[in-house]
Amino acid sequence: METGESGPSRRALLRTGAYLGATSLSVATASAVARAGERRGTVRPVPDWIPANASNYTVSSRPSAYPVEFVIVHVTQVSFQNARKIFQNPAKKVSAHYMVASADGYTAQFVREKDIAWHAGNWDYNTRSVGIEHEGWVDRPKYFTDALYESSAALTAAVCDRYGLPKDRDHVIAHSEVPGATHTDPGRYWNWDRYMELVNR
């Protein structure tokens, strides 16, 4: 994630989200519903829609306005709920297109792919990418669960298919690999070999 203007770091912004008031949507409830559906053998065809505040992204008409050329992998550094609150706080100036929960792979969409989420810390890369946040911390590998990897890889594969992107590390990149990045996510515990194998499965 990033801010729309210069100011506090992404981590500082995310941490302040812990003090924001809760909204009416309960992701925990949605996760329970998703798990029940999985036990019945059903798969949700699209992520749940939880819109970010309109002050936290740029309306666009991609891919006609800008080509989509990358998927950028992030880690939140806070819980799913706290990151959601940040995306919905108009003062934060940060968002991502999607976020994947650690425990069960629950996935929500916060910004339409046609629009530009503010996640990469680089305007050029924001315009040409889809950002996927992952619940967890870069130094706590236990958050990178099988469910998180599998849900995220399926989402990344679908994004690549939609825009004709090769499913490789030149097009599926870390936040830390964005030019000028000051972030380390997803960090050294992210298993890129496993992830890319799942993306290509």
What does this structure look like?
With 201 residues, the protein is an alpha/beta fold. The chain is 29% helix and 12% strand. The protein has six helices and eight strands, in the order ααβββαβββαβαβα. The strands form two sheets. It has a six-stranded mixed beta sheet. The chain has a two-stranded antiparallel ribbon with strand order 2-6. Strand 4 and strand 5 form a beta hairpin. Helix 5 crosses helix 6. The longest helix is centred in the last third of the chain and has 18 residues. The protein is globular and about 35 Å long.
Radius of gyration: 15 Å
The ordered string of helix (H) and strand (E) elements is HHEEEHEEEHEHEH
Average pLDDT, rounded to a whole number, is 84
List how many beta strands DSSP finds.
Answer: 8
Task: Give the overall shape, derived from the CA principal axes.
Answer: globular
Given the helix and strand composition, which structural class is it? alpha/beta
Tell me the strand percentage band: 5-15%
Strand order of the largest sheet: 1-5-4-7-3-8
Give the biggest beta sheet. 6 strands, mixed
- Unreliable parts: 2-45
- Work out the helix count: 6
